Amino acid sequence: MKSTRWLKRGMKGLLQRAEATAAAGPAPVVDLGEPAPAVWPAPEAVPAPVRDPAALGRWLEELRSHAAVVDSDAPETAARQWYAQRLIELMPHVEALQHSGDEHFALLQKFVSTVVQGTDGQEVLAAVGVHERVMLALTAEGRRSDLLVVLADLQDHGRSYPTAPTTDATAAGQLAAEPGYLPLLPGPVEPGLLSLAPVDLPVTARLTRFEWAGDGILIIGGWAFLPGLDPEECDLDLELRQQGAGAVTALAVRREQDPGIDTAAADRWRSYAAAGFSVSVDTRTLAGLGQPGGAGEWSLQVTLRTGGGFSASDVVRIRDIDRVPRRFPVGPPVSTRTRVIGLMDAAQGLRLKTVRYSCAASICEVEGSTVTVGFADPDDVLPLALYLEAPGESRLEFRRETSGTRFTVDASPLTAAVPAGGKEKRWTLQALLPNGRTEPVGWAGSGTGLADVSDPSAALRAECTGYGYLQLSLRTERVTLSQARTDGAALILEGWVDRLPGSPAPVLPELMLRTARNEVLPSSTCWLDESGRFQTVFPLLQDKWGYGVSALEQGHYRVLRYTGGAATARVPALGHLLTDLPLHFQHELLSLEMVGEGNEQDLVLRVGVPRTTAEQTVLARSRAVAAYSQTAEPVDSGVVLFETFDGKSCSDSGRGISDCLGDRAPELQRFWTVADFSVPVPAGCIPVLRESAAWFRLLATAGYLVNNNNFPHYFRKRPGQFYLQTWHGTPLKRVGADTPIAGTTASYRALIAREAASWDILLTQNEFAAETLAAAFSYWGEPAVFGYPRNDALAAATAFTRRAEARQRLGIADGRQVLLYVPTWRDNGGSANPYLDFETATAGLGEDYVLLYRGHHKFAARRKTTGQNHYVDVTAYPEINDLYLAADLLVTDYSSAMFDFCVTGKPMYFLTPDLTQYRDSERGFYFDFESQAPGPLVVTTEDLVTAILDNAAARTSYAGRYRDFVHRYAPADDGAAAARVVDAVWG
């Protein structure tokens, strides 16, 4: 590459000849000027980043052979684009260098340096983004450790950066990037890499409004900005460009404020709230609208101009899914049998298109099962016949009325074709025209006008497609929602139930709110009148486990109704509710947002933490972190901040310590981090929302910090603070710095290198864990081998009583055996789908067994456990000790749960189908698990069932191992570990 023909010639003026426009589409390479006359050879798709670099090596060898052809025959511009595209394809491998070793790096460095260090290789780099330029340059220079610093910073802080003026005349907008990682690098970065190129300033735009205001006036709203630039310092132009004709219509732009933009922008340096806009389009006067011969089409073009002489243009490719429905509303016709509709996709963006109908109805009435369609306008084309058609169904013909312009049909025969389960069936209206052709029938009014003459809540209703064609939609029973409100404690929904005349009277609909992890049943449902109007009330607080009421778990709750014995049917919004979406409700413990999904605008309730729109932005978080790092408030020795698994629970050893402190030192203020207010907090303690203003203040000022994991990357212990690290289990699998590099990120490795230096005490369960954890985290203090406070309850005299209470909370009848399944997570993400086949296990074990599933906290938010009846999902159960006590046996794999459960003396089984891979490749073990496991290791669920049913044999075979296991790993779990910790730390 260093001696290639095109590089020898040089690339002066390359970017000056390129159009100063940046595409926001999927292709990340800027257009370098001339179109390529041919498709130049390239290897098959680059292999996915893997630990074995052999596949990449073969791909690079193939690439070099193709490069010889490109160097020899391709025009300069085509060659530049070819090499730039190859660099883009290699970026996943560059980023994966944090997961691989020197061999992988050497392979990449050899090729990348050939490209980057060519005569004018910097200009090839200008075709990729600034972070990619820096990482590729560091790779070319062999600076692997610096590359890891960049990757860690991007993972911690995101990809946004501040910009500053530059003297580089070739820089787009006369600006250069100032990424936050620059001061962290021991060596310099070539300044030219930081000069902005057109690819760094793509138009970033989104559609937020598409509404018809009447008389053919269309209101289009959205936002557009250039990343890294203040939108108020950019000029914004919007135009409609007629495709194929060249006609351009400039639109009058209204600049608007929209705080929600910053949520999508995810920029920690600046706000883009001023990037909003709206325009009004009179679709009746579009340039070229009246031209004969086919439909016209216009694209909405957005252009942004900076004071530095740079401009970029693009179409709007993305819509705000909460504010703009997937199927755009249909406006009024612009002339006889002609209307303008909206279309949008990622390739062509937002555009307007004319649709001309061969036949359009001006009358449509639906009364019960009778449908009337009329053609009363003098300009209407009167069909000879009218039909209802649906795939696979017999045609149903309308009857022409004596007026000659109206057609009527009884649609009740259509009910036989409607599928069970409340699903929709649609028929299109087809007209036989005087010219002998059969064409679909258009609607001569607007979509809202059709809703006025055909009740959208009716079982049988008329609709128009996105192109404005008429169709009939039928459900045997239609349930819709028209109002939503809250009264502080509940969500109140009102709606309608409708059936065709002659059908049995409707029954009250059974609704529910469901995520993949949680279900909320209504507290009441009642009729509001005799017309089918009903009300359903959902509580906003739950007492899911008998530990007291708390807020709903965060999630995306679909509004579903039961049909055919299962909650599967979505419920759409209509009327004022549809118009008002999205709706936002205020609650002390929750953020509630109601939105519509899909073409039908099916209702969804989004439940989150109680933060304002502004507080949810990356910008606000960045400012909060900066304020935390600069705090000067004194440390308060009377305050303890506890955190377990990032606030997902208030449990583990911190819970045992907290309870003991409550008894021994009640004057201490105990705060618990919670991820949301669905997390129950111990009695006498105060919940504090993670990354709230109050939490940042406590993180900076609490005299004592107790954590079983890591604090975020920005945490720095202040003088006067005491940090007690309890960790979250005796390790079988390798942890910390011992974790294989493929299973960690550059950010995590940097974090653990800092964390242990802040620990004042590392609490461990046993001597083995003390030695192992101290080495893995480079902890140079003396670990406190006190046993685990989280296991005190397992050895307490109250264990039997607590077992009975836990089983009662879980609804487990006396005499039933409880199997508790607690798998660990996998570095490859596989634990989201556990290896235990619950259906097979349930069938094999029989009705005497109840299965409980406790997912790992790292994948708790990804589990899908609702809508099944084979097991009880106890992932969110507040206290795992309750589960250990309630259980009669444990099934796990490589989880540290085995070291805790052994305190109970109850049987353990190990479902380990991936043992060889996990031990030898993915994670690795600290000891010979197969020889020490205190129970059978099995590969399949069938084998597990057999082993459990032969429990007596397993107990006999593994009794000696079990005793040795307890002696080695739980000798100090005697019920007094928390007291020992409190004595050591608080005296």
TrEMBL record:
GO molecular function: CDP-glycerol glycerophosphotransferase activity
Localization: Cell membrane
GO cellular component, one term: plasma membrane
Membrane topology: Peripheral membrane protein
GO biological process, one term: teichoic acid biosynthetic process
Keywords: Cell membrane, Membrane, Teichoic acid biosynthesis, Transferase
Lineage: superkingdom: Bacteria
Any one Pfam family match given in the protein's UniProt record, by short name: Glyphos_transf
SUPFAM superfamilies for this protein: UDP-Glycosyltransferase/glycogen phosphorylase
InterPro entries: Glycerophosphate_synth, TagF_C, TagF_N, Teichoic_Acid_Biosynth
Main location class: membrane
Family (UniProt): Belongs to the CDP-glycerol glycerophosphotransferase family.
Official protein name in the record: CDP-glycerol glycerophosphotransferase
Taxonomic source organism: Arthrobacter yangruifuii
